[in-house]
Specification:
Helix content: over 70%
CATH architecture: Up-down Bundle
Protein name: PA2169 family four-helix-bundle protein
Shape: elongated
Number of helices: 5
Number of strands: 0
Pfam family, one: DUF2383
Distance between the termini: 49 Å
Structural class: mainly alpha
InterPro entries: CHP02284, DUF2383, Ferritin-like, Ferritin-like_SF, UCP029477
Number of domains: 1
Strand content: under 5%
CATH topology: Ferritin
CATH superfamily: Ferritin, core subunit, four-helix bundle
CATH class: Mainly Alpha
């Protein structure tokens, strides 16, 4: 496998994670009452949509074909979050817990690719920007979780 194909495959993996995260945040909006949390999730969904656009652009520049949807695992995770919040007396806490878990999984994939040797500077900068935004979201979500628990 040539280098550009290897990098494109890893970028596609991140692309799918971003599709899943965007859909997860949009789903979370329907599972919380707080207007502040709804706005927070809406901003996170928008941010993940933007990340996906940037990743698609990079993949296309390598002459590869970007994925166009999320994963089965992501769909199952969203269904689990909805079910969990349905049976919880405090529906916001389990939704936040699942959002944090999903973000931490994304962070692992980003960190793995960032540690790839000889990444082109444009990809490296983009990945660092995404990773730092995801880490910031995790920190914010943990604060929100403490407030609702």
């Amino acid at each position: 496998m040539k280098y550009s194909e290897k990098i494109s495959n890893k970028l596609n993996e991140l692309l799918v994670k971003n599709y899943d995260a965007e859909k997860g945040y949009l789903n979370a909006i329907n599972n919380v009452e707080s207007d502040k949390l709804k706005m927070f999730f809406k901003r996170r969904a928008s941010e993940r949509s933007e990340f996906a656009k940037e990743l698609r652009t990079e993949i296309l520049q390598y002459g590869e074909i970007p994925e166009d949807s999320g994963s089965f695992k992501g769909t199952m995770h969203r269904n689990w979050t909805t079910l969990k919040s349905t049976f919880s007396s405090n529906s916001e806490e389990p939704v936040l817990e699942e959002a944090i878990r999903g973000e931490e999984a994304s962070l692992e994939v980003y960190n793995e690719l960032i540690n790839e040797p000889n990444l082109p500077p444009t990809i490296d900068r983009m990945l660092l920007k995404h990773r730092n935004a995801i880490q910031s979201a995790i920190n914010t979500e943990k604060v929100h979780e403490e407030l609702v628990s």
